[in-house]
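Researcher: Quick test of sequence recovery. Tokens follow.
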């Protein structure tokens, strides 16, 4: 394998470096995760000059130094495989980080100061967009006004979403750009805050927000590139070397491609198109090949079975405990669901479906079970969130696991964030099937972990801590919520490494430290196999390496880009 690779590169003249320019990485305390999800210790590794792992040595084993030209000294630190987030939203994470955040403001004056500073920092932005304000927290006793914004930003539109997303605050330039005047009518389900003279005062509530929101220009390609660069920077600082993008639009995909073409794709992306139309547009007749030396692939499609628990959009078998007249709603009927899944599966696209409520999950499992009769082989049907599954449906999951394979793609931090809300929505009896990580793994399903960023921070350390403790960042509830569903450390680490790679058909390329796989690894200051959950949450990522190249160094945080071998898409396998 190696000699053929070298021969090809020599013939192509792709590398100026001499033939055997292997890299020895040693002097660390390392862990790798096996394909089966078990954790083993690693004492040293040898990488080739294409950024692939050639050999892995157990502690105490003597590495072969033949052909080794470079040395990376681990300095006794902890080394782990690069972490993988199995469910997040790449561009939204970048855009959220670029948007003005008012959620910490304590008064109107405080907010106005922040808005003014943000506008000054971003003279090139045509609109100032932000979110997170709350007039209750400011003790204002009324909505803020356009006139107040005009005093600090008179020349450009400003549009700021309230903390709950149920109201928006515009300045006069934004109202003008949107054509909102004294004679504007609020649509059904919305209202326009008016001043004494009947003029729009600045705040638009619920459905009326769209009057201004639709005037906000869509992001340009340059905006998207910036958001993507921002998202990648966030990911590598958390030690994420690969992510699954759950709902890529064609614009998102083209953003990833532009980065790949410019050698600026630092994080590996497993993409799931936002619906079947985007899937066909991006993938055409089937999933894309792995591009840019295993840094990008369109794997399949993301579909939605139902909504979320918080807004009572999740589809339940029995009514909501705290609103007995509703059960939530499916977003697709059974025929639509079957048709869309079939359309994807017939061309071997992987199917990932958002399902939260027990009716949503039960119906989805039934649909997968049916389709498994037609679409055989290794399918790895993915359920995104798999949040509430009736134990009566667990055997169906087990049956699918044994046939085409099934992935429970879950977000440990959702459990800690949702706990109180979930108890209210579901009542005691349904909690057994809620966020049931260990039980779902017990059915034979593959447990892959993620964050759903930007809904939660893309912080795998908070996720690892929650996964093994079911306690939140304040240690609540002590001993963990529904503690029987905690997973052990190896399962948690595997959920963020080997199993997340498997969930995206990437297990032969990355996700573990093993010969033939891409050299994606991180140095950290905390041992996740022995530290307390509270310590794991505080883990500092010291260095992040992707494909044998360093993409993040805490000691040199402003360094740009990749510092070693795999600077260009190589002719790797
Ligand atoms: Zn999501």
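Model:
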């Amino acid at each position: 394998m190696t000699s053929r690779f070298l021969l090809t590169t020599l013939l192509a003249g792709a590398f100026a470096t001499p033939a055997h320019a292997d890299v020895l990485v040693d002097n660390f305390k390392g862990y790798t995760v096996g394909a089966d999800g078990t954790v083993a210790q690693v004492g040293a590794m040898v990488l080739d000059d294409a950024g692939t792992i050639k050999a892995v040595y157990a502690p105490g084993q003597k590495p072969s130094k033949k052909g080794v030209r470079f040395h990376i000294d681990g300095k006794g630190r902890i080394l782990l495989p690069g972490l993988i987030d199995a469910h997040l939203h790449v561009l939204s994470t970048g855009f959220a980080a670029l948007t003005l955040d008012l959620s910490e403001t304590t008064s109107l004056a405080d907010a106005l100061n922040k808005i003014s500073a943000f506008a000054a920092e971003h003279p090139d932005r045509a609109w100032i967009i932000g979110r997170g304000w709350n007039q209750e927290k400011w003790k204002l006793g009324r909505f803020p006004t356009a006139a107040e914004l005009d005093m600090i930003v008179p020349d450009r539109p400003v549009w700021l979403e309230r903390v709950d997303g149920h109201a928006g605050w515009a300045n006069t330039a934004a109202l003008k750009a949107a054509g909102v005047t004294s004679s504007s009518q609020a649509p059904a389900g919305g209202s326009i805050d008016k001043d004494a003279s009947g003029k729009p005062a600045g705040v638009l509530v619920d459905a009326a927000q769209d009057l201004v929101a639709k005037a906000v220009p869509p992001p340009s390609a340059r905006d998207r590139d910036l958001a993507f660069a921002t998202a990648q920077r966030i990911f590598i600082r958390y030690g994420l070397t690969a992510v699954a993008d759950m709902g890529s639009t064609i614009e998102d995909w083209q953003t990833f491609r532009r980065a790949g073409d410019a050698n600026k794709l630092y994080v590996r992306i497993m993409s799931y198109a936002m619906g079947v139309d985007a899937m066909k547009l991006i993938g055409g007749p089937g999933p894309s090949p792995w591009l840019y030396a295993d840094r990008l692939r369109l794997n399949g499609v993301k579909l939605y079975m139902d909504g979320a628990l918080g807004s009572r959009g999740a589809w339940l078998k029995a009514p909501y405990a705290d609103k007995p007249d509703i059960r939530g709603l499916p977003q697709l009927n059974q025929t639509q669901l079957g048709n869309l899944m079939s359309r994807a599966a017939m061309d071997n696209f992987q199917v990932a479906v958002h399902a939260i409520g027990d009716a949503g999950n039960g119906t989805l499992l039934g649909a997968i079970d049916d389709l498994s009769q037609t679409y055989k082989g290794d399918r790895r049907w993915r359920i995104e969130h798999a949040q509430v599954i009736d134990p009566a449906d667990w055997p169906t999951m087990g049956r699918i696991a044994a046939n085409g394979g099934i992935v429970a793609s879950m977000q440990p931090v959702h459990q800690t964030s949702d706990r109180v809300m979930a108890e209210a929505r579901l009542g005691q009896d349904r909690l057994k099937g809620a966020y049931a990580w260990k039980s779902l793994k017990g059915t034979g399903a593959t447990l892959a972990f993620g964050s759903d960023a930007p809904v939660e921070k893309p912080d795998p350390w908070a996720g690892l801590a929650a996964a093994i403790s079911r306690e939140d960042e304040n240690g609540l509830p002590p001993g963990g919520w529904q503690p029987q569903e905690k997973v052990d450390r190896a399962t948690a680490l595997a959920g963020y490494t080997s199993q997340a790679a498997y969930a995206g058909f990437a297990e032969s390329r990355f996700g573990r430290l093993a010969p033939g796989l891409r050299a994606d690894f991180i140095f950290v200051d905390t041992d996740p196999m022995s530290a307390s959950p509270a310590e794991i949450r505080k883990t500092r990522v010291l260095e992040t390496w992707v494909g044998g190249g360093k993409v993040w160094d805490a000691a040199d945080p402003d360094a740009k880009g990749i510092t070693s071998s795999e600077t260009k898409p190589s002719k790797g396998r």
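The chain has 18 helices and 22 strands.
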